[in-house]
Amino acid sequence: MKGISYRRYGGPEVLEYGELRDPKVGPDQVLVEVRAAAVNPVDWKCREGRLDAVLDAVFPVIPGWDVSGVVVRPGASVTEFEVGDEVIGYCREDFLSRGTLAEYVAAPVRTLARKPRNLSFEEAAGLPLAGLTAYQVLLKALEVERGETVLVHAAAGGVGSFAVQIAVHLGARVFGTAGERNHAYVRGLGGEPVSYGAGLAERVRGLAPDGVDAVFDTVGGDTLKASAGLLAPEGRLASIADPEVLSHGGRYCFVRPDAEDLAALSGLAEQGVVTVHVQDTFPLERAADAHRLSQEGRTRGKIVVTVADRQSEAGEAR
Fold first, then answer.
1. CATH superfamily of 2-126+276-317
2. Quick one: average pLDDT of 5-22?
3. So what's the architecture of 130-252 in CATH?
């Protein structure tokens, strides 16, 4: 099969496009023909070796944890899926090696759910990692309830845009930090945009004089420190960006593959509760350009890499 890999840590230039070994399919795995795979900030952080302290790399590494595609072969013990099923997955394992930026991936069944029928493969690929992150933080770490106020940082980004939509669905009043150019986008998600930068605390207090009930931090650093001072007396704080949140009495969260949560998220997408905005798409051979764009840090929604439909290609060849 063809795919993207890297043989050492480094910048986008270490990504190579070419022939790779076909994946083996274990008893608890599903061979998925990849139609699209999202690029997330964690992908290039892994490529640069920033997660080397917690995740072993078995080189060559195929990057990518998000996928949408079609089941080609279920493993011997898999009863959840059949050949031809359209699926999505957050295919993270406990080491770096067998990712989704390739024509096929052998995904653990615990990482998969059925693809939302109303989403394209490109849209569906953007849902798992970022959507699950928002879902798990809001429902399990922050335990957001109807009538509460929630502050979401970087509300126009991949995780932030899902967090705004899910928090609104839970019945919360949602404030989302974003640049001026993204204010209309945040309003369209159901949130109330707040400009970040100098004076942020004053702007938030103007909207919630008694403090906010929950803060979802996706930035860390000074933003996290400032957020701790915006909480109501019983407010909760969670961060996916900075372990220092623990020193502020908050929760540090790293998204987990969870088939049940992913199925629930897929259901929200089918109901129209959650939509996926795809900013840019790149063909598989240009995955390095997708990484470069992600590293610029100005993404609205998701960046997606597409893989050609081999059945369509065969039809065109005939």
1. Medium-chain alcohol dehydrogenases, catalytic domain (3.90.180.10)
2. 98
3. 3-Layer(aba) Sandwich (3.40)
